[in-house]
Amino acid sequence: MAPKDFRQRRPSALPQVALSITLIGVPQAYAVLGMRVGRALFLRKVSDLHRRTKAVGLDQKRSSRKAVADREVDTEVTGRGKSRRDAQYGLLTAVANEADVSLGTVSKVVHRRRDVSEATRARIEELLTRHGYVRAWEAEARRPRQILAVFRDLSSPYTLEVTRGIVESAADMGVNTIVGTTSGRSIAQWLEECLELGALGLVIVISMLTEQDQRRILGQHVPVVLIDPLHTPSTNIPSIGATNWHGATTAVQHLIGLGHRRIGMLAGRSSSVAGAARLHGYRAALEEAGISYDPAIVRSTDFDYDEALVAARKILSPRDRPTALFAASDTQALGVLEAARQLGMTVPQDLSVMSFDDTLVAAMASPPLSAVRQPFQELGHEATRILLQLAEGKPPATMRMELATELVLRMSTAPPR
Question: By residue range, what is the domain housing residue 33?
Answer without folding.
Answer: 11-62
